[in-house]
Amino acid sequence: RSVDMNVLGTRRLVELCHKMTHLEALIHVSTAYCNCDREQVDEVVYNPPVPPQKIIDTIQWMDEDLVGVLTPHLIKGRPNTYTYTKALAETLLVEESGALPVAIVRPSIVTAAWKEPFPGWVDNFNGPTGLIVATSKGILRSMHCKSSSIADLIPVDVVINLVITVAWYTATHRPNSLLVYNCCSGSINHLTWGGVERLAIPLILRHPSHGVFFYPNGSFTDSRLWNQLCVLFYHRLPAYALDLAAVLTGHRPQLVPLYRKLHRAIQCLEYFTTHEWAFSSNNVLMLLEKVAPEDKQLFNFDIKALHWPTYLEDYILGIRQFLLKEELSSLPMARKSLKRIYMYTKAVHLFMVFLLWKLVFMRYDSARKLWFVFVSMVVKLFNALPRITS
Questions:
Q1: Rounded to two decimals, what is the model's pTM?
Q2: Carries keyword Cytoplasm (predicted)?
Q3: In terms of CB atoms within 10 Å, which end of the chain has fewer, N or C?
Q4: What is the dihedral of CA 352, 354, 356, 361, to 10 degrees?
């Protein structure tokens, strides 16, 4: 399926373009992660281990089961068939484009709009958008992520403006060779996944959503083991407990199926949040110098000017407005609701501590003795404080 869409689809488009006698420019939108088996990704087309035509010929006679067995060996070093076939498509484009005026744009992780059509505009739950929604609802509590790694987010309007500008440059300047443009933010305007967490969580609490399941307090962790423990205690056990209560009261269970979908989505993203790449953007910076000042305003793709705290706030508000269909006027009510959830959460925590105290410290003599020793030491310490300060 990926071969048919990304590789053969590209071939069919190139064949069509060869029939166009007045074609000005053909801009192929790839992905920055098509070469994710490399740590340093320059603005060049890398040759894949197996030529595209051999892959096409192989896929055509194999059944699905055999393709499934062969796929892990073919995509070695890449997380999925999408990134692999995107790399094949780039090579095929080089091989079959001939004299066509072609360029390649490679966006990284495409996120909500920076400015156009509206700040924060977004129309899908893909990538970080889904994570923000899950966090704002209190569903996502933990995720395995390398906090120090670059979060290479790129607003969708920046990508579109760059594609338009690349089309103009390709049509008017006719470069001698196919140019690749890495449409990324990491090398130009640095932001880490840890930075995303530090900025986004307070903003989510400032602009809460309706229908929150748990108090939003998710976090990234570098430890896979700790993440698995957090998933067990913060995702799975509460989901099964609440769904069991729902079934017993005659309601439909919701959380367990929801968490299954969430964990599948996180599994797809985890590769990109635990690895880091250095994308060069020399051609993008070169193009920025070629554009007239008035065109820079109309087709802005200068990611250096983006202020991440402001952008992420617009992003979160955009998710509320455009995806969740929650008007800004509903924010005061949502904040009151979040305060109630916060109080309920603290009450549950106190109850759990009290229950633990009753079950452990009051049931076992040794635990009770340790508790009283601890309390007496604390009291003695407080009594000694005036003498120490004097």
A1: 0.85
A2: no
A3: C
A4: 170
CA distances from 351 to 223, 230, 233 (A): 29, 20, 17
Tokens of 173: 């300047």
Q: Hey, what long-range contacts does 222-231 have (CB within 8 A, 24 or more apart)?
A: 222/144, 222/145, 222/146, 222/147, 223/144, 224/144, 226/142, 227/142, 227/143, 227/144, 230/141, 230/142, 231/141, 231/142, 231/263
Instruction: Specify the 3-state DSSP secondary structure of 65.
Output: helix
Cβ distance 157 to 114 under 8 Å?
yes
Helix (H, G, I), strand (E, B) or coil at 365: helix
List, in order, residues 6 or more apart from 12 with CB less than 8 Å away: none
- DSSP for 82-121, please give it: HHHHHHHHHHHHHHH-TTS-EEEEEE-EEES-SSSSSTT-
Of 62, 342, 313, which is closest to residue 206 (Cα–Cα)?
313
- What's the token pair of residue 369? 């003795």
* Residues shown for the chain: 390
Helix or strand holding residue 382 (H, E): helix 365-389
Encoded tokens for 382: 């407080």
Cα within 13 Å of Cα(52), Cβ side: 24
The residues near 362 (Cβ < 8 Å, ≥ 6 apart) are 368
